[in-house]
Amino acid sequence: TVVGVDLGGTKIAAARIGADGGVGEAVRIPTPGADGPQAVLDAVARAVLLASDGEPPTAVGVGTAGAVDVGRGRIISSTETLAGWAGTDVRSELRRRLDGAVVHVTNDVDAHAAGEVPRRHRRAGDGHVALAPSARTLQPGAGCASAVTAASTVP
């Protein structure tokens, strides 16, 4: 079972991802952002288990608010919407809570770009690459990312 998670300042959404890339029904719960990182991580684990019908998943992808060290799965910086979130080792903490599942953590805007480009621009036979080299958070809930498809041509 693979589960995708959108972790924002006000809500956590989690859904099972099928082998065909299809997205199951989303589970949504409030983010206990003022209660600190452990409460947020507990809530994420709860949402993941709800989305996977109580079975620990084999893999989880998390798009989270804040700047993320993707290689380590650790939060570099974030707003006060998620109190104490900076420095949190999301990958290790979720692995512990989810029976050793493989966990990938990235910025939520980067995750959106990486998923949206292939879905919207894929055509039979076209190759594609989604790049979100940096997300620059402007304020809570607003950010930007760039994406390029391999099928794009430059005149």
Q: Which SSEs are present, and which pair or pack?
A:
Layout: E1 2-7, E2 11-17, E3 27-30, H1 37-51, E4 59-64, E5 67-69, E6 74-77, H2 90-97, E7 102-107, H3 108-121
Parallel strand pairs: 1-4, 4-7
Antiparallel strand pairs: 1-2, 2-3, 5-6
Helix pairs in contact: 1-2
Radius of gyration, rounded? 16 Å
Q: Termini distance?
A: 43 Å
Largest sheet report: 5 strands, mixed
Amount of beta strand:
15-25%
Give start-end ranges of low-pLDDT stretches. Answer: 123-149
Record the strand order, biggest sheet. Answer: 3-2-1-4-7
The overall average pLDDT, rounded, is 82
Topology, number of strands: 7
Backbone structural class: alpha/beta
What is the N-to-C succession of helices and strands? EEEHEEEHEH
How would the global form be characterised? globular
Q: What is the helix content? A: 10-25%
How many individual helices?
A: 3
Characteristic terms for this protein:
alpha/beta, single chain, five-stranded mixed beta sheet, 155 residues, two-stranded antiparallel sheet, 3 helices
Entry summary:
By secondary structure, the chain is α/β, with parallel strands linked by helices. The chain has three helices and seven strands.
Structure write-up:
The chain has helices at 37-51, 90-97, 108-121; strands spanning 2-7, 11-17, 27-30, 59-64, 67-69, 74-77, 102-107. The chain is α/β, with parallel strands linked by helices and 155 residues long. It is globular.
